């Protein structure tokens, strides 16, 4: 599969990194020679310095044989132009990163007629992610499959968790009445994500990911030693595009929303548009202001200003004031892995969300859905099992399944099944699989 990525920023780099594990024929185009040098030194892809809107340059790298063109520069207009030109020159599929919600929501124009097959908005994805995180308040990561039939839930194990110091097998036996599979553990001081086995021991402050059917979500709270927090009052710091979209989404679901924005004109504009939100003009870094606006009465605090450090520090302040749930937007992807060590419930990165959303278009036809987990560089896939696929030939325990991957569950005829060793996968099933990047191609091969 030949893929051309226009833009070597965080989104482009993350996509190129994911693709480099799979020996895809990948090209990255950008003006920035320093960024391209960094990619060359770290990834096995081909780089080209220049303008991705140049017909000559696109023809030089074989746009007419391109299976997928990804326009993910910082400029929405540039991305749109690249996609249109690329499609006209023979690219089979084009995806453009855009910011303007009108492009996504306007049904009057069919953008495919112009050559843009798909559009993606990092801001809309981030706003939806925040809403989902607030729904499952005691968990810091949530991914749903098949409208919630199966769910991947992430949480940090506190001192109240009854599975501390137990092995995965012992924990499963102790809570045999609950359907769950432990699919991953991120441990302080260990860079590599742990794919748990039966003898893996749960430790204090582990970031643990469970795969559970809808019916077991409520039963999972006692296992992590937490109660289901009821979130009603939410304070949002920052009237950015993400802040506005998050407030809009939460107001629709009857949350009590307070939004703080230091730009007076922007605050007035948001207040005129969101009648159900309380919009405050002020600097959210001012602790006295936060106190005046009753931060101690808030159930959740969401910091989405354009400054990562401000978002992190304000969330720490909110935590110190007794706020139950904190979410901070960060630009630097290196920050993503530190949330469990500094006390913030969840750090999100809009570019990482965008890259993961785009990446599902790259997967082979068997993949129905794909999601990225916040704290680890790994993916959760939903595969559709084809007739005579290798995974149907033997029970799960007899498959040569890579150690860097684990089954999270099976969906058959609209019902959820736990994927333990004796389970026999059949054609037509949908399989949830957690997978580290280095095992993706091996796992995909089993579903052929």
Number of distinct beta strands: 21
- State the CATH class of the largest domain: Alpha Beta
Low-pLDDT stretches: none
Under CATH, the topology of the largest domain can be stated as: Rossmann fold
Give the % helix.
Answer: 25-40%
Instruction: Please identify, by name, the CATH architecture of the largest domain.
Output: 3-Layer(aba) Sandwich
Number of continuous helical runs: 15
CATH superfamily of the largest domain: NAD(P)-binding Rossmann-like Domain
Quaternary state of the chains:
single chain
Helix-and-strand structural type: alpha/beta
> Mean of the pLDDT scores?
89
Give the CA-CA distance, first to last residue.
16 Å
Shape: globular
Describe this structure in words.
This protein has 448 residues and is of the alpha/beta class. It folds into four domains: 2-120, Rossmann fold, CATH 3.40.50; 126-130 and 230-353, 3-Layer(aba) Sandwich (Rossmann fold), CATH 3.40.50; 145-224, Alpha-Beta Plaits (2-Layer Sandwich); 358-446, Regulator of K+ conductance, C-terminal domain (Alpha-Beta Plaits). 30% of the residues lie in helices and 24% in strands. The chain has 15 helices and 21 strands. It has helices at residues 10-20, 33-42, 55-60, 76-88, 101-105, 122-135, 168-174, 217-224, 241-252, 264-273, 287-292, 308-320, 339-342, 350-359, 440-446, and strands at 2-6, 25-30, 46-49, 68-71, 94-97, 118-120, 141-145, 150-156, 181-186, 207-213, 233-237, 256-261, 277-281, 300-303, 325-329, 346-348, 367-372, 379-384, 405-412, 415-417, 430-435. The strands form four sheets. Strands 3-2-1-4-5-6 form a six-stranded parallel beta sheet, sandwiched between helices. The longest helix has 14 residues, at 122-135. It is globular. The two termini are 16 Å apart.
């Amino acid at each position: 599969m030949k893929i051309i990525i226009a833009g070597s920023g965080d989104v482009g780099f993350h996509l190129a990194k994911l693709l480099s594990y799979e020996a895809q024929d990948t090209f990255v185009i950008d003006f920035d020679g320093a960024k391209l040098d960094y990619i060359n030194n770290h990834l096995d892809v081909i780089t080209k310095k220049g303008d991705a809107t140049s017909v000559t340059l696109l023809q030089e790298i074989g746009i007419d044989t391109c299976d997928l063109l990804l326009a993910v520069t910082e400029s929405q207009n540039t991305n749109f132009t690249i996609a249109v030109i690329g499609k006209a020159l023979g690219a089979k599929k084009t995806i453009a990163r855009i910011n303007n919600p009108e492009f996504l929501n306007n049904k009057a124009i069919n953008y495919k007629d112009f050559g843009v097959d798909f559009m993606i908005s990092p801001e809309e994805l981030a706003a939806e992610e925040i809403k989902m995180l607030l729904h499952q308040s005691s968990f810091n990561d949530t991914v749903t499959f098949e409208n919630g039939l199966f769910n991947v839930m992430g949480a940090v194990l506190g001192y109240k968790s009854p599975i501390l110091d137990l092995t995965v097998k012992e924990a499963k036996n102790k809570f045999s009445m609950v359907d769950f599979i432990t699919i991953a553990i991120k441990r302080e001081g260990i860079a590599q994500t742990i794919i748990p086995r039966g003898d893996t021991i749960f430790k204090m402050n582990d970031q643990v990911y469970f795969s559970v059917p809808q019916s077991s979500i409520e039963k999972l709270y006692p296992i992590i030693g937490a109660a289901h927090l009821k979130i009603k009052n939410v304070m949002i710091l920052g009237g950015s595009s993400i802040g506005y979209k998050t407030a809009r989404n939460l107001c629709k679901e009857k949350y009590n929303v307070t939004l703080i924005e230091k730009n007076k004109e922007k605050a007035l504009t948001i207040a005129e548009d969101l009648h159900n939100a309380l919009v405050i003009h002020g600097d959210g870094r001012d602790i006295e202001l936060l106190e005046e606006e009753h931060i101690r009465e808030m159930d959740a605090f969401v910091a989405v200003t354009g400054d990562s450090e401000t978002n992190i520090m304000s969330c720490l302040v909110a935590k110190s004031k007794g706020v139950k749930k904190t979410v901070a937007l960060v630009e630097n992807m290196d920050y993503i892995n530190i949330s469990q060590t500094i006390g913030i419930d969840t750090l999100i990165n809009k570019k990482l969300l965008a890259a993961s959303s785009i990446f599902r278009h790259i997967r082979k036809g068997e993949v129905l859905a794909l999601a990225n987990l916040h704290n680890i560089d790994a993916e959760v896939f939903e595969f559709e099992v084809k007739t005579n696929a290798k995974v149907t030939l033997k029970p799960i325990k007899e498959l040569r399944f890579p150690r860097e991957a684990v089954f999270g569950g099976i969906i058959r005829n609209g019902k959820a099944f736990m994927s333990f060793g004796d389970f026999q996968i059949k054609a037509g099933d949908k399989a949830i699989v957690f997978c580290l990047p280095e095992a993706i191609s091996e796992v995909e091969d089993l579903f052929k």
